Amino acid sequence: MVSNPQRRDLLADAGLRVLAHSGARGLTHRAVDQEAGVPAGTASNYFRSRDALLSGLAERIFARTAPTEADLTGLKGRSQADHLLDIVRRTTREPDLMRALFELRLEGARRPELGRRLAETLHRGYREDVAFHATTGLPGGAFEIALLHYAVDGLLLDLLTTSIDAGPDPEDVIKAFATRLAPEVSAG
């Protein structure tokens, strides 16, 4: 039997697939139920409103793309570029997750309540990244981490949507971000 947290994750994962493939307009509780293969009304039992569903999807994206302990152990003592490459690897391994996040961010710009909820999640993630750098000895402060976020978000948008097709290998782009945006950060 599937437990409540497992069912919620199953529904959220189905919702992410719907969101990535059909956009925010195609995301309904009914579409999530159909994608998950559960009885009608199940998604609305777990996510009472559209905003609750959208917020739940955002949380699920970050849970699924978070680094594992093995990821973090493997990155100990590595350069900033290696950390950024790991982020790109984890987020492009399942492209629908980031496509769904792009959809959520756009929808959050149109729906103030969702925007506030999503902003809380994004702000928390940013603060955690800044703290991670401070506690692991990675150089760079809040400003440098913000620059790297902006750059990586743009790269991911280009990799996972209609691309400008400029040609450089993403690994070369990441290394350039690390050296050009925060030279003292990449020296490690």
Q: Which secondary structure elements does this structure contain, and how are they paired or packed?
A:
Blueprint: H1 4-26, H2 29-36, H3 42-46, H4 50-65, H5 69-75, H6 80-93, H7 95-110, H8 112-136, H9 142-160, H10 170-181, H11 183-186
Radius of gyration: 18 Å
Q: Count of DSSP helices?
A: 11
Shape: elongated
Q: What kind of sheet is the major sheet?
A: none
By helix and strand content, what is the structural category?
mainly alpha
Mean pLDDT: 86
Question: Distance N terminus to C terminus?
Answer: 49 Å
| Poorly predicted spans | none
Topology pattern, helix = H, strand = E: HHHHHHHHHHH
Strand content: under 5%
Helix content: over 70%
Please report the total strand number as a whole number: 0
Q: What does it look like?
A:
The chain contains eleven helices and no strands. It is an all-alpha fold and 188 residues long. It is 79% helix and 0% strand. The relative contact order is 0.11.
Quick synopsis:
The chain is mostly helical and 188 residues long. It has helices spanning 4-26, 29-36, 42-46, 50-65, 69-75, 80-93, 95-110, 112-136, 142-160, 170-181, 183-186.
Keywords:
single chain; 188 residues; mainly alpha; 79% helix
